[in-house]
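Hey, can you fold this one?
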Amino acid sequence: MKTLHFRGGDPYKLSKKSIAIVGSRRMTRYGKEVVDKFVSTFVAEGVTTISGFMYGVDTEVHQKTVEYGGKTIAVFGCGLNVIYPPENKKLYDEIIKSGGSIVSEYDDDAKPHLWKFPQRNKIVAGLSSLGVLVIEAGNKSGSLITAELARKMKKKVYAVPGPITSGVSAGCNELIRSRKAEMVMDAYQILGKTPKLQNSKTPSNLELSRLEDKIYETLKSEGLNADEIAAQTGESVIEIGTTLSLMAIKSIITESGGKYWAN
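Sure. Predicted structure:
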């Protein structure tokens, strides 16, 4: 890895216990909830997050890490004097103030160019000690480049499954299907730890949608697969599948062997 320019904390020290998190610039509500779920746990466990400071998942990762009191490393595809995207000026300052780091391999005044962002991905993957986590990525997403770079570096690659109807989850689902990434639904799977009870979410402290509530009530008595849930609730199997994925991410239900159980 090239010598890095940085502002804020020393990225080499911060990255000793770290996870790179990348994903789509077209983040959905589902992706936002997934980022919140994973980042909150990583911060609680003292893990530094690393991402690329762009729109969507990158920005959300940095912002949530700062909000939860953690440290994050933002890797630029331009010089440190050039804040790109410019809308992230406040976030730039917050990262440094919170003890995080802004990093670049380019001269301080270097402008952003398309070819620099894949180059930047090498640093995102290279700094991470725990590997790369992909949250929402389309089939041609730059996040898949980061995942492939991590594989070549012999680092672990993780992916969060998404609705099969969502284009921004197609890349994640393919990584899992092709076994190029390990499917994860909880940060503790990456950390190799048992979830802490205080971090678990139950319907008593979550506001469920009409369909989520209907599914949860159906699963209270027995484990069912998606088709069985659709048959019992009278709802569309496509809607059921999408909602099940979201409920599993929120730890409302648990999936095993193709069946779902209420937590």
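Residues 5-191 form a domain with the Rossmann fold fold (CATH 3.40.50.450). Let me know if you want another pass with a different chain boundary.
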